[in-house]
Amino acid sequence: MRYNARCPAQASIGAEACVLYAATETAAARYSVNPVCSAARRATMKYLKLVLVALLVALPTLILYVPLWMFGINPLLFEAMYGHGPYPVADYREVGIDGVTIGLERRQSHSFLAEYERRLLVALPGGASVAHDLYKDTGGANRLNFCWERDGVIRLSDRFQNYLLSLDTGDLLRLPYREGGDDACGSAYIGAIGEDASGRYRFVPVAEEPQCVISYAWRSGRCRPTA
Hints:
This protein is α+β, with helices and mostly antiparallel strands. It is built from 3 helices and 12 strands.
């Protein structure tokens, strides 16, 4: 064994202990940290800590901001701008039947939910027009079916209520809740204002799509195809 000058005296600790001391010193030198790498590592850890702190601050802020905006700021702004109406028009769709134009106007009545105040606008031959407020759509009533009830009278059905519309006078009769609304019209079906197969909101005539009987299930805007 070669004597290690940095090892304590062999006489005092013995040859075997001196060999162990030399091996330990060699391993320490082999795994010693390069000063340049050490500085880079410290800088990386510093930036990682900064990123972590930023995330810890931003995440709770974001979590609090979303409900605050949705349920606090946004409704307040909506209320300040529109109060209890008139609300902004979301869309308008119409159809002509026997010389009478029947239009459905929807106004956004909630700051972020799909809730609408609905109005039926009827333009009669000769220039007269009549407007009727329909049941408020609190969800799932985006489809309005049109069926012939009898000559000159159309039955309108949505998930909330059914109506009889006179094409002669423009008068609208509200039927009791659910009366006849879940029945198929058969050959009397005209069409519906709702989403077509591609998702567009418009009047869809029977020539393009058979009747879809509207469901009255709570919070359900789905309908049951008849063909």
